[in-house]
Each structure stands twice: as C-alpha cells, then as structure tokens.
C-alpha cells in the first residue's frame, strides 16, 4: 500500500477510535523469528527444545522455513520474518540465504557472510591470529590442484618443512576445508611412527591408527604442532559474547573409541572456564559475528589454544543450557526489535551486557562486587534450639510478659531467663518423679534448655535469649506419622539462642 493510502487508513482508525463505543486497541505486532536451515538441523532435539522456550516470549512467533522451499523456491517466495537464524551445513544454499537477507533485511543473529570464512580453516586461523587469540604454531601449505607436486613442502623421516618452517613429529595435518574432518596426526619413529586418522564419528569410533607415516601428497593443508593435552578436548558453546557453556570429551586422538553412556550418548564432562578462556569465547563470538557459535579449546602447558571454530552449534542434552540459550536469544531479539515495533518491553535486571574494562592483564570483565561472609575469630558460634511447648507454666509466663499482644515474646533480662530456667527445672523433676505425668515437652529438649541457661553460673551480657511465639493450631508436622500424633489446640514455639561470647576464645578465658 502507498504512503497516502496508509496515512488515510491511520486517520480513519483514529477517528473511529475517538467516536467508537469500545476502547479496544489494535492487536499488537508480533516479532517473527525465522529458522532457515536444513531440516536435519532445524528439527533437531536441541533446536526443538530451544524454540519451544522461545515461543514462551509473549511477543515472539517462530516460523521454520521448509527445506523444499529453501532448496527449490526463489528467495522472494520464502516466508517473511523480522529476525533470521540461519546457518550453513552440508547441502545448505548459503548464497540464497545471503540473497534473502539483502532482500528482506532481517535482524541476523549469525552473520551469513562470515560463514563463508568459517568453511575455510585458513581464514579461521587468520581471523583468530588478527584477534590476538592463542593458536598452536602452524603453517599453511597451498597446492595447485593441477600441479600438486609444486609446493613448499620438504618431508623428512620425523619432520616436515612447510614454507621454510619446520614441524617435528608429532604434528597435525588438517585439510583447509572445514567440512573435511579427515585430520591426521603423525607420530615420530621413536614412538612407533605411523599416524592416527581422525574422522566424523561412525558408530563407536572417531579415529583409527595407520602404519602410514608419510603426509598426503594431494590437496592443501594446515600443519600445526601437536599440543599435549590431558586426553580431552574442550568444546565451548557461546550464546552471545557474554555467555559460554563448556564441556570436555575424550580426545579422538587417544584410541579412537567413543565413550558412550547406557543410552548410547557420547559422554561429556562439565568444564569451568577460566577468566581468560571466557574472554577468548567473547572474542571468538564477536570476531566471527556468530551469536550462537561453537569452537574447540586445547588446554596444554598451562595455556588454552583455539584449534577450530565450528560456527552455529548447540549443546546436546542439557536442559540448563536450553533454558539459558532461549532466554539470552529472546532478550536479544526483544532488545533490538521491540522499540521499532512499539512493543512494551523493558530489559530484564539480569542483562547480558557485562562491562569490559582495560586492566594490566588486558581487557577483562568488570568486577561488579565482592560478597564476603566474615566472623570474628574471638567469638564462639551462635547456636539455636527449637521446641514446641504446651505446659500451662509456659502459657502463664507468656501472658505475664504481654506476649498475647503481638503473639511474640522475647526474654533477655536475667529475671526473665531465671523464670524460664525455673520452669525447665520443675518440669524435669516432675518427669523423674512421675513417669506417667502429662508433660508433653521432650525430656532431652528440657535438659538442653536447662543446661544452656545454667551456663556461666549467672545471666549477663546478650549471649542468651529465649523467644516464644504463639501457634494457634500448633506447629505443622513434617511427616504423616507426626501428623497422626499431632495434638489439637494452641502451643508455643520456644526458640533458645546462645553463644557469640566475645571472650570465649581468648587465651586464658577457659
């Protein structure tokens, strides 16, 4: 519709709103988030779990682009959306996704043009190096497919020389194409020689040993020094620059056997990232412009090195991650799009934007606060004992000191505490003399009450006090057995507090 036509409709709406009998406002605009990916990815369990949680945002609707539409239809026929989540995988037409983004200009959570770079390990390593992120020492061997023998590679028994740089065995050989997972590790002759050949998991295997010790003679590769880890790889998953989830798995370079649980899922171990690793995660996320981004860390020699960036990746089988991911993504979408659609939404208190400040060790997350729990070393700990009482003597004491006015009573004065002690002594004597007496208070509790009040031989200071609270229907019971034994009628909850003596731990205080 033209601007004039739209303006006329708006004027008509305002007049109807003024003259109409009802006060109904027009329906609020929903934000449409589109998922453009191959069906294997868009209908995967992690994606399904996250989309179900995103749908709980009041102003967000989800639309999944059908795979046949993505592959066969021109981008003009693709569904409309305000925000696009799109990522490359095998068979995905990334060129068409880029064309769609130019046509519709949606908010992109994962930049599409940067996904071309992620498909080339040479570009990945170049970007990481430019960002100052630690990498294993590496060299790039580019071969002309028509003349594979013309290259800067010199191979020795226990080393290779790439462009004049020497890599002694063990070293790693990676195809420059990130979609090619046939990564080889070559061992020195002193360790038996040969190579470990890694590949995408097939059943329970992720690598096999080969006696072949010579490097591949066709194709372009990255050669890098082998990093001695503890036998695990760390997988990091970002959701925006300020959220990173990390897991460790058994390294495929060990024996090639995949560790699986009783349900057949690969075993992952939770990992706590260091402050520097969190900063690396932030840098990777921002450098590649991928809100949702997975990458691999190698922990070796006291340092962490990034050895691969995978782009769009989700954690598997973590409900906490699904909750967090949906929350972060939903808040990002609302923060960016709510204002332009006039949607009443405010940024939650737990905003994802954590200030980054320069320090002597580089840029780090700002320390917001320090919470400390500190107690004096020269004081005894404060202690507490609770008991329910029903004896008339306690009710008389409660009434005497005005407890019924507020339903609560605090007894701190020596005379008041002496009255409580006298009641405890009297009830204990009656329990000893009359085994069948109707004293409901537990003997052990009364003995503890008597012992605490008799401590130190006198009442002084503020190191003891008794609180009485009126319970109209008695104290609720924790179990069905206690419920069966519960007595009707009111009772008093007696709370005895003691300890915190300032001189108890000093030398010579006894």
UniProtKB/TrEMBL annotation:
Matches recorded under Gene3D superfamilies: 3.40.50.11950, ATP-grasp fold, B domain
GO biological process: inositol metabolic process; inositol phosphate biosynthetic process
Region (Disordered): 1-27
Keyword ATP-binding: yes
InterPro entries per record: Acid_Pase_AS, His_Pase_clade-2, His_Pase_VIP1, His_PPase_superfam, VIP1_N
GO molecular function: 5-diphosphoinositol pentakisphosphate 1-kinase activity; ATP binding; inositol hexakisphosphate kinase activity
EC class name: transferase
The organism's place on the tree of life at top rank: Eukaryota
Primary subcellular site in the record, as a coarse category: cytoplasm
Domain VIP1 N-terminal: 31-120
GO CC annotations on file: cytosol
Localization: Cytoplasm, Cytosol
Similarity comment text for this entry: Belongs to the histidine acid phosphatase family. VIP1 subfamily.
Reported function: Bifunctional inositol kinase that acts in concert with the IP6K kinases to synthesize the diphosphate group-containing inositol pyrophosphates diphosphoinositol pentakisphosphate, PP-InsP5, and bis-diphosphoinositol tetrakisphosphate, (PP)2-InsP4. PP-InsP5 and (PP)2-InsP4, also respectively called InsP7 and InsP8, may regulate a variety of cellular processes, including apoptosis, vesicle trafficking, cytoskeletal dynamics, and exocytosis. Phosphorylates inositol hexakisphosphate (InsP6).
Protein name: Inositol hexakisphosphate and diphosphoinositol-pentakisphosphate kinase
